[in-house]
UniProtKB/TrEMBL annotation:
Transmembrane segments: none annotated. PROSITE patterns: ABC_TRANSPORTER_2. This is ABC transporter ATP-binding protein. Pfam families: ABC_tran. The lineage of its organism: Bacteria, Bacillati, Actinomycetota, Actinomycetes, Kitasatosporales. It comes from Streptomyces paromomycinus (Streptomyces rimosus subsp. paromomycinus).
Length: 266
């Protein structure tokens, strides 16, 4: 599962909408699962998408939504959809407009996963949910991934949620990929280094300075290295995922010469 992070306006929603075919690129090309997005019914069937507001039809019942999903998707898994609704305790006869925010999000997720997509795109689907509803949503998502081995891209500002479910991370800033990689590897190669005030250029070779913050007597660096380097002149400690994400999203203190790792999304 891939976690997609970035400040507001970074391009997360644009990227996901390009990937599912809701938007067309103004330049360049997009390829998803080997084909252009929305290139035909077969390609559309491979991709599931849940937008931030978990859109549903307020006047239709839950059962109406499932019947609509079955008619629109040739690969519809009725057993999967019915089982999810039953396990969630949602009344199939209830109108979507009368559901709670968490129930609407679960209904939207059910419609997306019952397509049996190869790629599931989620655009901040839990942003407006309370902690319990978020936990239930993520639990259902993890069950789907474990059982059907689908690829999921989950956009979220809630790093704690991403830490629970994601094994890969992409950080977008100003439509550029600032960081991408396996979460365990990223955490194993980023460190906070605190020392007496000094320039980043004076650090040993093999320490790539990502961020530098200086006070009158002290310097704090976030560095990237294959392993921790022990020196009595400084304190070097690992980062947690939230610190890692904030380091790359916050332009304040960015090390001179720092560059994104990919071209901008256009």
């Amino acid at each position: 599962m891939v976690g997609l992070v970035g400040p507001n306006g970074a391009g997360k929603s644009t990227l996901l909408q390009l990937a599912c075919g809701l938007l067309s690129p103004t330049s360049g090309t997009v390829t998803v699962l080997g084909e252009p997005p929305a290139s035909g019914p077969e390609q559309l069937a491979k991709i599931g998408f849940v937008a931030q507001d978990a859109p549903t039809y307020a006047a239709l019942s839950v059962a109406d939504h499932l019947r609509l999903g079955a008619r629109l998707n040739p690969g519809w898994d009725a057993r999967l959809a019915d089982d999810r609704i039953r396990r969630l305790g949602i009344d199939p006869a209830q109108r979507a407009g009368a559901l709670s925010g968490g129930q609407r999000a679960q209904l939207a997720l059910t419609l997306a996963v019952a397509k049996r997509p190869g790629l599931l795109l989620l655009d901040e689907p839990v942003a407006a949910l309370d902690p319990l509803a978020r936990r239930e949503f993520l639990r259902g998502l993890m069950e789907f991934v474990a059982e059907y081995e689908a690829t999921v891209v989950l956009s979220s500002h809630l790093v704690s949620d991403l830490e629970r479910v994601c094994d890969h991370l992409i950080a977008l800033v100003a439509s550029r990929v600032r960081l991408a990689g396996d979460v365990e590897e990223l955490l194993a190669t980023h460190f906070r280094l605190t020392t007496a005030r000094r320039d980043g250029d004076s650090l040993p070779d093999g320490l790539e300075v990502v961020r530098a913050v200086h006070t009158g007597r002290q310097s704090t660096f976030v560095v990237r290295a294959e392993s921790a380097v022990h020196d009595p002149a400084w304190v070097m400690e690992p980062l947690d995922l939230e610190d890692l994400v904030l380091t790359y999203l916050d332009p304040a203190g960015a090390a001179p010469g720092a560059r994104p790792v990919a071209e901008p999304l256009r």
